[in-house]
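Course assignment 3, question 2. Fill in each field.
Student: A.L.
Task: Predict the tertiary structure for the chain below.
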Amino acid sequence: MPNSPDDMAQEIERLRAENAALRSKSTRELRLQVSQKGAVSLYGIRRFPVTFYMEEWHRILGMSDDISTFIREHEHELKKKES
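Answer field:
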């Protein structure tokens, strides 16, 4: 715990640098985790995880070619997220 004004100034500078480093990460790291209910949660895409049960992930992954084709065919209708 900082006691003197110099200690507090150093702590503020350290926190500012830490905040700047955290903000500079333009993309979040993707990671998977097993949820409390035994589903698969994908973190790092949105604020909250995308969670599906194993069978649902298999169905989605089995459609990967269809999803890619659909996106390509409808690209002119789709919005892109601003980073």
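Instructor remarks: The longest helix spans residues 5-23. Helices lie at 5-23, 54-62, 64-73.
Grade: pending
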